[in-house]
Amino acid sequence: MKKAGKILLRVTACSLALSLLCGCTLTERLDETTSTLTNMTSDSQRQVGQVSLAYYTAEKVNPITSSSTINRIICEALYEGLFCLNDQFEPEPVLCESYELSGTSCTLVLKEGLKFSDGSDVTADDVVYSYRLAKSTATSMYYNRGSYMSSIRATDSRTIQITLSAPNSHFLSLLDIPIFKEGTENQTFSIGTGPFVASQSDTDYLLLPNENWHGGKVSNVPQINLVGTVRADAVISSFAAGDISLTRAERISDDPATIKGAVDVYQTPTTELHYLGVRMSHPLLSNENFRKALSLAIDRSSICRSSLQTFADPAVLPVNPQPEMLEDSRLTGALEQANTYLAQMGIRDVDGDGKVETSSGEEITLTLLCNSENSFKSNVCSQLVTAFSQIGIQLNINSLPFDQYQQALNSGNFDLYYGDVILTPDFDVRALLMSGGSLNYGRITDATLDSKIMSVRTASADTLEPAETDFYEYFLSKMPILPLAFERNQVIVRSGLLTGFSPRPYNIFWTPNEWRLG
């Protein structure tokens, strides 16, 4: 049994499920039906130097079943998983003491003495109940993770035995699923193990330090106010009005948040990949040297600095962060090397007009399919036009509203397309890259690539690193898609309110004992 003192697994291109956003982000496609705003903020909740969060009162707060993005933040204060993911998307133990992962068998042992906020013991049965609820709740953000668990059972009060439906060397990266006390899902706030606990004061709710927290009672933040609303889109206006002081706000969206007043912004990495998909039936794009030339023409670092306004990290592999083996030139562009690949195909600028011709004398024009609803991504497309022109290739942009974009994508009516996909933290690219994958719109068919992806998923601890390196090197030699960047999220705090604040990708309330109120 491996001791979970600190688990640092190498993150690779594997994940449970992918949600193709194709130029629009997930929250841009959420149901926009809302009711009117109810301002439940009392004068005491507006006091300077206090942390205040928005609270969506139209649903019960439960870490598995809550669907509003507003209450997800509250859940991070109240509930914890067996693991928490760091900025490298590596799992670190929270409620887990030890684990053993081999093939399709995963055994997890809880730490001794864990208590829920009501003082009752945390047991393996609670973990099993939470996981099974995630597996059976189609609207849960953790629903797809349950599909990888064919059976979940408790073997004693602290031990959980999971049988996977297929091997997954990075399965632990998926076990940040929050745990709550069995049978409390119908309460206004389900009972959890997190650093804070919900409490009612008169007609308002607030969060107080959890005296039974295994990390020690938080002493520097005596309470967190909850500002009730029944309208999910009222968060930013509530922040501007001073009602709330801490929130997340998506930046790379078709309606980016504009925050007024003095704020501190903390960026956190994500698994949201921006990339160029390729139609493999195209006579030139079917050639790996041509795809590599296009990739080397792109200055990804410049795209992240300008069009994506520093809210993205450059990427040439579908994994975040990029592995250390990667050369900087792959992220900043290498025009000379790009032209060398084209020359190997007989493509060069014969007449000196700045445009390359094929061996038959034809100039090259490609069409890039893009969703028109996001100005950030439209700006990226403009940068790509300039980038490809530097190697003598003309790029035309076919910019369409989302519904028309999706139709063109499904019908294969593109040479290249600008895609945007959210991966789960084990970076599973099977749907995106493997033959017959549900998101394989370019019709990639490469048995060797399929094999190398599966070798990573099924690798043991001893063979994982070489399997990853083998996959990376093969991907770079073929460039079946052209990754561009991974988005960054932003956590916004009222300026000067907190010091010692270090949010993680999925956990704003990491190490709250280190917080200091300004």
- Helical/strand content category: alpha+beta
DSSP summary, beta strand count: 21
User: What is the arithmetic mean of pLDDT?
Assistant: 90
Q: What percent strand?
A: 15-25%
User: If you compute it from the alpha carbons, what radius of gyration comes out, rounded to the nearest whole angstrom?
Assistant: 24 Å
Helix content: 10-25%
Low-pLDDT residue intervals, each spanning 5 or more residues: 5-46
- Main sheet attributes: strand count, strand direction, barrel closure: 8 strands, mixed
In angstroms, what separates the terminal alpha carbons?
A: 44 Å
The helix count comes to: 13
Global morphology: globular
Give a short overview.
This protein has 518 residues and is α+β, with helices and mostly antiparallel strands. It contains 13 helices and 21 strands.
Topology summary:
Elements: E1 2-3, E2 18-20, E3 51-56, H1 69-78, E4 83-85, E5 91-93, E6 96-102, E7 105-110, H2 124-136, H3 143-146, E8 149-154, E9 159-164, E10 196-201, E11 204-209, E12 224-229, H4 235-241, E13 246-249, E14 263-278, H5 288-297, H6 300-305, E15 312-314, H7 329-332, H8 335-344, E16 365-371, H9 375-389, E17 394-400, H10 402-411, E18 416-423, H11 430-433, H12 447-458, H13 464-478, E19 482-494, E20 498-499, E21 516-517
Parallel strand pairs: 3-12, 16-17, 16-18
Antiparallel strand pairs: 1-6, 2-18, 4-5, 6-7, 7-9, 8-9, 10-11, 11-12, 13-19, 14-18, 14-19, 15-19, 20-21
Helix pairs in contact: 5-8, 12-13
